[in-house]
Amino acid sequence: MGFQGTGYAICIPVPLLWCILWRMKTEGAWYNRVVERSWLDPIEPAHRIDCRHPWPARVDSRLSGGVNCYEPDRELVAELGDNDALLRCMVRDNTSWNEQVAKWSLSEGYRQFMDLGSGYPANDDVYERAEGRLSIFVVYADIDRSVWAHLRTSRDTHLGKYAHVHDDIAEADSILALPEVQETLDFTKPVVLILSSVLQFLSDDEARAAVAAYTAAVAPGSALVLSHPADGHPAVQALAEAYHDSGIPFQPRSHDEVAAFFDGWELCGPSGLCSTPEWRVPGAAKPKSRPRRGRYGVDPGMTAYAGVAIKPGSMRA
Ligand SMILES: C[S@@+](CC[C@H](N)C(=O)[O-])C[C@H]1O[C@@H](n2cnc3c(N)ncnc32)[C@H](O)[C@@H]1O
Fold first, then answer.
1. 105/47 Cα distance (integer angstroms)
2. In angstroms, rounded to a whole number, what is the distance separating the alpha carbons of residues 33 and 45?
3. What's the 197 CA to ligand 1 centre distance in angstroms?
């Protein structure tokens, strides 16, 4: 082939290829399939960690002073302006409440836990501390790939057993049917269902259906541990708006709406469903009434509800 032949060989296929790629780009789906599932990058899109958009676990990490966050998460928190101190308080109160409930449930003899929307592993996790002396079984489920990756590398056990599920907790039936879930938990015995600060990311229908499915799956004597951002608080509203602006649904709920998740359960603790820092273990005295000075020197007001309940029936942990 002479010079002219080489020219044809380049001039015809190159623009043709360019036209095909342009068409694929304008048609969207195909372009995404080729570029995102590129053979140059063997990692499936579903397995990649999305650092371009904020994600709830990372926003929480930012609010609680952790380091598991990227620029979009920091930008979302920056958008919160003056509300950020109250929201930091809300996140920290929730963490302390989780610790308190975890210690209580272990002392009550519970050994099986299903942490739905678990978030990143805590630095000083109660289960991990307990694991040195007790045989405990925990299923962690979270929709965030980076959370899942952290949990998998930080949770290994010699006594009990852990399973790490990367899935949408709204898909309750498929999560419950997973072999690793069935192999980790014995559903004929009580399980502690933990839904801590996660149902706000689900619509009313999804949240109701998910709670009903997990409730139906667990034995009498199981515990439901649930916290939820409260509606009507300006700081929580600012957080909801910041999430909405980033395309993430976030629905604060009223006391009655959160209480409805406990239908069929018996609330325990002296305050029942109350503000997170007011929750006390069953048998403890009711806390003194407000105003309370929070960690940031202000009364945070009603930013979130928390409650713990037992599934009626004879069996206990
Ligand atoms: C606000 S953080 C709370 C984390 C932890 N439960 C706690 O109380 O500290 C919410 C967590 O729920 C996860 N999440 C949000 N929507 C979810 C869904 N549909 N399925 C599973 N996890 C979800 C997020 O990835 C994040 O880790």
1. 34
2. 9
3. 7
Residue with tokens 């206990």: 316
Count Cβ atoms within 10 A of the Cβ of residue 88 and give its class: 0-12 exposed, 13-18 middle, 19 or more buried: buried
- Give me the residues of the chain with pLDDT under 70, please: 1-12, 19-48, 123-124, 129, 131-132, 155-160, 289-300, 314-317
The structure tokens 């109660």 sit at 126
| Six token digits for residue 179 | 């072999």
Structure token digits, residue 17:
């290829």
129 CA from centroid of ligand 1 (Å)? 22
Report d(CA 264, CA 87) in Å as an integer. 31
- Encoding tokens for residue 271? 């305050």
Q: Distance between terminal CA atoms of the chain?
A: 82
Please say whether the beta carbons of 259 and 271 come within 8 A.
no
Residue 314 has what pLDDT?
A: 67
Chain segment 249-278, per-residue pLDDT in tens? 999 999 999 999 999 999 999 999 999 999
Of 54, 51, 49, nearest to 241 by C-alpha is 54
Is the CB–ligand 1 distance for residue 147 below 6 Å? yes
CATH class, 81-310 region:
alpha beta
Give the 3-state secondary structure of residue 83.
Answer: helix
Atom of ligand 1 nearest to the CA of 147: 27
- Residue with CA at minimum distance from ligand 1 atom 4: 119
Q: Which residues of 101-128 are buried (b: 16+ CB within 10 A; e: fewer)?
A: bbebbbebebbbbbbbbbbbbbeebbbb
Indicate the pTM of the whole model.
Answer: 0.83
* CA pair distance 30, 27, nearest whole angstrom: 7
pLDDT tens for residues 165-189? 999 999 999 999 999 999 999 999 9
CA–CA separation, 59 vs 74, rounded Å? 7
